[in-house]
Amino acid sequence: MTPAARTPFSLYPELDTTALTAFVTALESGDVTGLAPARAAEIAEVRSVAVFTRGKVTGADGDLLDAALWRHTGAQPRPAIVMPSPWTDLGWLPYAVQASLFAARGYNVLAYSARGFAGSEGQVDVAGPLDVADGSRALDHLIERSTGPVTKIGFLGDSYGSGISQLVAAHDTRVDAVVALSTWGDLGEAFYENSTRHIAAVRALLDAAAKARLSPQTQSVFDNVLANRDVQGTLRWAETRSPFTHIKELNRRQVPVFFSHAWHETLFPPNQTLKMFNELTGPKRLAVSIGDHSGPEMTGMLGLPNRIWTDAHRWLDHHLKDIDNGVDAEGQVLGEIMWSKTLEPRPTWPSLTERLERLHLADDGELGEEPQAGWTSTVLCGMDTPATVADQVVRSGYAEIAGRPKIYRTQDIDRTVAAVWTTDPTAETTRLRGIPRLRVTYRAANPGSTFVAYLLDTAPDGTAHIITHAPYTDLDSPPDSLISADIELQATAYDVPRGNRLMLVIDARDPFYGDANLPRASLAFTSPEATPSYLDLPLG
């Protein structure tokens, strides 16, 4: 794929660029004509205590990075925040309102466009060594221009900037706290979940960087994922760029980290971020919400009330300004329950799951309590079904946030290209909390096989909503051998209403993933007596 072939796409479809540009113009001039009263008041407040300027940060290799600085003029000691930009041609602009709010609260703030994006020189390194060095150079720039002593330092980023923020904190001992919104922990796992290529995510990243200047290595890696080449080379490339690889440094210094994520994240699936979160030993907090990538925090970028950004402010106030605001005593996890939007705090991630309920995959499409051997359910490969991850990367999540999740019509799922198992109607509300696990055995006639498992909440009329899913690919087993797949579905917090049924659907094709199946091949699912097929439900 060449840059000219990319279709322009935004990971921030609801971001009002015109409004943000007007906000920055008013920050510079003081003229708030035409702005909403709330934005005008924010500008007046920040201009009364700090000076806003645009400038350039000298990054690694001498590349100049486009930046914006909110600087207090007095000699008073104060904390500082550096904000690396998201993966967008807008560069640092999406942070304009929130950076101003931080400045009004006493912080010196520097937001900058990551190399290769917007007005910054250099080429996109995807949170590689050059980006990490840029983050430290940006911090140098901010400290040098602070008129008083810098007390403590935070890094805050959304999406791309969140991964860079974690990596800088792991390498630069000056960083005291991190806020990582819509982030990743293990980039290799995000690209190859259970050895399955996330081709829709990689295409979205390429399209969102249509105007960016990708380095030859970055372009090659993305092209290789799409073309199914050099998997090991991509994983080595991703390892360096994964905060999980550098977690020992974060733990050694006990760096406080605040994560936010979405249950139905299509770019960076939540389990790989959870792996990172659960291994952190310092102060940590995780907010998981309805929606998709950057959706839960989007309204805050426009200056509207937003609980994710409110908690980000509280997190940095506590860890950089030593404010006793209670954020350290509220539990490590805050989950938004689909679709009630109820917020459930929990002390730790493991505490979400109180017990496991095992349901066995049985003959005649039943999910029941007792194992049953000897059956076979055959799926024809090469054909998609109405069971899919989502209609669109990122955008489908905004419909979920608005209370309009995708409706799946289960009666339209062709049972020749999908295997389906269903529970009896639930006698009471089923509270799913945590990570469902699937063990299933199948026979693939050809080398290389892929399936995608979906867990649906099905109403009495046959319509359904997706709860969670996961893909699986086997590349090593010889033809016509039995393959045992043990996989984790993506984490969830979902209440299945009384009278609804849980439905497990397995098919062999989804447009979100690259599959290893040969056209018209088949996968024969079964349940050997020694290793029965089952679904473990985490209940809370």
UniProtKB/TrEMBL annotation:
Lineage per the UniProt record: Bacteria, Bacillati, Actinomycetota, Actinomycetes, Kitasatosporales
Stated name of the protein: Alpha/beta hydrolase
PANTHER family found in the cross-reference section: DIENELACTONE HYDROLASE DOMAIN-CONTAINING PROTEIN-RELATED, POLYKETIDE TRANSFERASE AF380
Keyword Hydrolase set for record: yes
Keyword Hydrolase part of the UniProt annotation: yes
GO molecular function: hydrolase activity
Keyword vocabulary terms for this entry: Hydrolase
Family according to the record: Belongs to the AB hydrolase superfamily.
Record domain Xaa-Pro dipeptidyl-peptidase C-terminal: where: 313-536
